[in-house]
Amino acid sequence: MTAAPSPITASPAPHRRTVQTDRRVRVALKGRFQDSAGHEQQLVTVSMSARSAEVRTQTVPREGEQIVCYIDNLGRLEGEVIRTAEGCFLFRFEQSERKRDKLADQLIWLVNKGPLDLQEERASPRFDTRGLAEVKLESGGVLNCRVVDISLTGAGFEAERLPPPIGERLSVGNLRGEVVRSQGRSFGIRFLTPQDA
């Protein structure tokens, strides 16, 4: 089973929802599932999308078996085992479109909060693409911002004061970017590739 490289970022915009829900990302989350006999088994995710998950476990269920999983930070997921291998299996979720979209946003948060060094806005867990980020400007200075959206190639922010001008280069966490749009206190950046840098 081959998983997509991590991290991957995706925008919650409707025209990008297919990318967001279909592509699996590497994410290691602990959990458990009930086998067909009702026994609880431990698992760790290898990769996930909003439609399926590849997990490692000591007890592998049969292909076609219906299972219910409880995964840390994501909650209850149920679905069908569609492929098995030694010590792991892939299962496809059975859920509503609304729940699938919510799961996609949860995965975006989990994958991006490390590279973007995002901080929760409140004590209780929150799993959408919003959060607080510290933007370091190449020209000097730091700008505290709220993350508005994250896409495959960039991110949108709302600044606490006037944003940097178009063309300014900056860094967020361990990612570098360039400002490509600015309006009011909002601005957008594209992530720089090694070639750009």
Topology diagram in text:
Elements (H helix, E strand, L loop, with lengths): L16 H6 L2 E2 L3 E5 L5 E9 L3 E5 L9 E6 L3 E11 L2 E6 L3 H16 L18 E7 L4 E9 L3 E6 L9 E4 L2 E9 L2 E6 L6
What does this structure look like?
This protein is mainly β and 197 residues long. The protein folds into two domains: 14-104, Beta Barrel (Thrombin, subunit H); 117-191, Beta Barrel (Thrombin, subunit H), CATH 2.40.10.220. Helix content is 11%, strand content 43%. The protein contains two helices and 13 strands, in the order αβββββββαββββββ. The strands form two sheets. The protein has a six-stranded antiparallel β-barrel. Strands 8-9-10-13-12-11 form a six-stranded antiparallel β-barrel. The chain is elongated, with a radius of gyration of 19 Å.
